[in-house]
Write a structure and sequence with these properties.
This protein is mainly α. It contains four helices and two strands. A two-stranded antiparallel ribbon has the order 1-2.
Length: 129
């Protein structure tokens, strides 16, 4: 069973009432979003929801989708899951590209070492005076 992330109370966390007021949304709606798994605000040791910047950014996306585009919560969930999947895929592609670049660099370095000197045929040494 996964443990929930616990948050310390400091200036980087905001309480649910502040978030609700800032976004003109009822706190129960925020709790609904949490129950639906759309947001996962960290909690204090006293089990108080404390919204961090990441959760607030996610909430802004949810509100944009629902308010401006008219997407229902099921659609929001699909869109958020697709965004996460695309982010993971982009990170994987970045790793592949970095690997290929490193391989090409190493091959080029090995190739340059093989051809670094001009081959000179062996000939007897001649003394000149």
């Amino acid at each position: 069973m996964a443990r929930k992330k616990k948050a310390k109370r400091d200036s980087s966390y905001v309480m649910i009432s502040t978030v609700a007021e800032r976004f003109d949304i009822h706190p129960q709606t925020l709790r609904l979003y949490e129950r639906e798994g759309l947001i996962k605000p960290p909690r204090s040791s006293g089990n108080t929801r404390l919204y961090d910047a990441e959760t607030i950014r996610r909430l802004e996306i949810i509100l944009s989708l629902t308010r401006e585009l008219g997407v229902n919560l099921a659609g929001v969930e699909v869109i958020l899951n697709m965004r996460e999947q695309m982010t993971r895929m982009q990170e994987e592609m970045d790793r592949v590209i970095d690997f290929v670049r490193q391989e090409l660099y190493e091959r080029k370095s090995r190739s340059e070492k093989k051809h670094a000197l001009v081959k000179v045929p062996h000939a007897p040494l001649v003394r000149t005076e």
